[in-house]
Amino acid sequence: MINFKRQANAIKNFKENKHDKNDPVNKINKNAIIAEIKVHSPKYGDLLKNRKELDILKIYEEAGAVGISYITDKQHFNGNFKVFEEICKNTELPVLRKDFITTKDEIEKTAEAGASTVLIISRLLKEETAEFVDFAMSCGLDTLVEVHNKEEIEVAKDTKTSMIGINNRDIRKLELDDGTVSLTEKLANLIPKDRIIISESGIANLNDLNTVLKYTDAALIGTSFMKTNFETQKEFVKSFVRGKYE
Ligand SMILES: O=C(O)c1ccccc1NCC(=O)[C@H](O)[C@H](O)COP(=O)(O)O
Question: What is the pLDDT, as a whole number, of residue 13?
Answer without folding.
Answer: 84
